[in-house]
Amino acid sequence: ETGVTQSPTHLIKTRGQQVTLRCSSQSGHNTVSWYQQALGQGPQFIFQYYREEENGRGNFPPRFSGLQFPNYSSELNVNALELDDSALYLCASSLGPGSEYEQYFGPGTRLTVT
Amino acid sequence: AQSVTQLGSHVSVSEGALVLLRCNYSSSVPPYLFWYVQYPNQGLQLLLKYTTGATLVKGINGFEAEFKKSETSFHLTKPSAHMSDAAEYFCAVSDPGGNEKLTFGTGTRLTIIP
């Protein structure tokens, strides 16, 4: 069984640019959640996708957007990058959107904005 | 709104000694509680979780945690520390009946002294 994978592993962008991060969910999982983990902090919830629809959003501006595809893989897009967007971005997949379902995390994409 | 407080951003214990990592939560409803571990340059791995039922929860790698409603605590313990336990540990809470959004604490870095 393949776990959650994310690409790329590392990325360096310039302030003002746009970035797309990708996540492949674990087999059989229909829900993907994205988290931002700044250095020295715990992960913060960005949003969740369930069956291709956004199903909850944290306190992040609209320049953070996402997609989920029919195969349940997902993308996180960030426009107009700011220095504070530098962080480890984690995605997690699960069997469903409810809190009773365990989330399985990928290794993350480390984004550096200069 | 839910929140998690982890007391002690850094904890050092000797190999073979008791590990105690503290977590207190705030929630308007009885929450689900989780402990995750993060090794360097990796994603999060679930150690254990409390949903309902028995308040003493056993997890992987010899860890356990006890849910104490009266103290709003969910401290993580391990009787005998191993060198391989050195990592970052995160306590998290979610809202039963809501989506699976996890609210994390700021983490505790555990160092094992040989």
Q: Which bin fits the share of residues in helices of chain A?
A: under 10%
What assembly state would you assign to the polypeptide chains in this entry? heterodimer
What share of the residues of chain B lie within helices?
Answer: under 10%
| Proportion of residues in extended strands of chain A | over 45%
What order do the helices and strands come in, and which of them pair?
The complex is a heterodimer of chains A (114) and B (114).
Chain A: E1 5-7, E2 10-13, E3 19-24, E4 31-37, E5 44-50, E6 53-57, E7 64-68, E8 74-78, E9 87-94, E10 104-105, E11 109-113
Parallel strand pairs in A: 2-11
Antiparallel strand pairs in A: 1-3, 3-8, 4-5, 4-9, 5-6, 7-8, 9-10, 9-11
Chain B: E1 3-5, E2 10-14, E3 19-21, E4 24-26, E5 32-38, E6 44-50, E7 56-58, E8 64-68, E9 73-78, E10 87-94, E11 103-104, E12 108-113
Parallel strand pairs in B: 2-12
Antiparallel strand pairs in B: 1-4, 3-9, 5-6, 5-10, 7-8, 8-9, 10-11, 10-12
